Amino acid sequence: MKITDIETFYLRLPNVEARTDSSQDTLLIKVSTDAGIVGWGEVDSSPSVVQAIIGAPYSHTMVSGLKRLLIGENPIETGRLWDKMYDATIFYGRTGAVLQAMAGIDIALWDIKGKAFNQPIVTLLGGALRDRMRVYSSNMFQFSVQDTVARAKAAVDTGHTGVKFGWEPFGQHEKTDLAYVEAIRMAIGDDVDFMLDVGHAWDMKTALRRARLFEPYNLFWIEEPLHPEDISGYGKLSAGAQQRIAAGEQDSSVAQFERLIDEGGVDVVQIDLTRAGITQGIRVANYALSKGRKVCNHNFTTDINTAASLHFLCAIKNALVMEYCVEPNDIARKLALNPVKFEDGYALLPSEPGLGVTPDPAIIEKYLVK
Ligand code: MG
Q1: Could you tell me the distance, in angstroms and rounded to a whole number, from the CA of residue 323 to the centre of ligand 1?
Q2: What pLDDT is stored for residue 137 in this prediction?
Q3: Cα 96 vs. chain centroid, distance in angstroms?
Q4: How far is the CA of 194 from the centre of ligand 1 (A)?
Q5: How far is the CA of 182 from the centre of ligand 1 (A)?
Q6: What is the pLDDT at residue 326?
Q7: Fewer CB within 10 A of the terminal residue: the chain, N end or C end?
Q8: pLDDT tens per residue, range 167-183
Q9: Which strands make up the sheet holding 38-43, listed edge to edge?
Q10: Which domains does the chain have, with CATH numbers?
């Protein structure tokens, strides 16, 4: 089997708001083969930058676009093809958008591999350790406590046993932050897990102070309180806070994750497969396991990411819980013809070959940037 084409589909809502909400657009990747098998992937990045990285011509041995490297290659050889892309982009890659572009292609290659062997991806990753993952409802903070509480109640009413709120306007003032945290805990009761995503709003001392202030509210974790490059801050915070510290969604390379684990000391390693890929995700998860850390996905996009995350989390020993984006827009909610199924607060592992999820051509057509 040979790769014959790599196409990209940039989907975007008609009105993109100035918020930290990455569900407002996405880039889908379609890899075609001469066997008629097609694989789908997704990249959560800047879609037009990733399109350029995929389509770029050859400059020299360490600067190449990705598509020309893969045409004619056997899509089943995911590990070798990852290294081929990595080595041919060293001059401008090794992190950020190049690795994110590689991640989307990697997911599509695993989708093809599953379809070629007539097996779900999880089986090719070593086999399913579980057939479902507990899901938490992942939300943006709303701009009032009242609207945020309404979202929290909706999460519990729809059967979720965990709920997260993140990003603006949280993090700016101690009193307002306390009002949000207190109101959410009151709304969801004592038995629902409450994850707090701070969105880089604090420095290390502020984070330690807030962590102490929030101890009575039993946070499941405190996520990304610091700038992603403040690794020494993460190290001190992880050592000093009573709560679990979670981070990793900004990182794409194994080297970045290893630093976050070793020097940053984080308790929960959050891997977005649409930015790190399945091939690398497994490497990072195994490293985290060797250091006694838990792994979660990061997912604020579509069912392609959700399905990839399920195969990945169900294949690793140290999976903790699964992020599921509940932003109510069509791209986040309606992309898949055959969406991932949910039952009693759990997402069910697809059993079809490959990812088990296919994009709906009507949604692609409706939101495609032409
Ligand atoms: Mg986050």
Answers
A1: 9
A2: 95
A3: 14
A4: 13
A5: 20
A6: 87
A7: C
A8: 999 999 999 999 999 99
A9: 3-12, 25-33, 38-43
A10: 3-119 (3.30.390.10), 124-359 (3.20.20.120)
By CB atoms closer than 10 A (0-12, 13-18, 19+), residue 191 is: exposed
Q: Which residues of the chain have pLDDT under 50?
A: none
> Can you give the pLDDT at residue 20?
87
Query: Contact at 8 Å (CB) between 219 and 196?
Result: yes
Distance 158 CA to ligand 1 centre (A): 21
How many C-beta atoms lie closer than 10 Å to residue 351's C-beta? 12
- Measure 1 CA to ligand 1 centroid, in angstroms: 38
**Residue ranges with CB less than 5 Å from ion ligand 1:** 197
pTM for the whole thing?
0.97
CA of 58 to the centre of ligand 1 (A): 35
The per-residue pLDDT for 216 is: 98
Tell me what pLDDT residue 150 has: 97
Q: Are strands 268-271 and 245-247 parallel, antiparallel or unpaired?
A: parallel
How many angstroms is it from 169 CA to the middle of ligand 1?
14
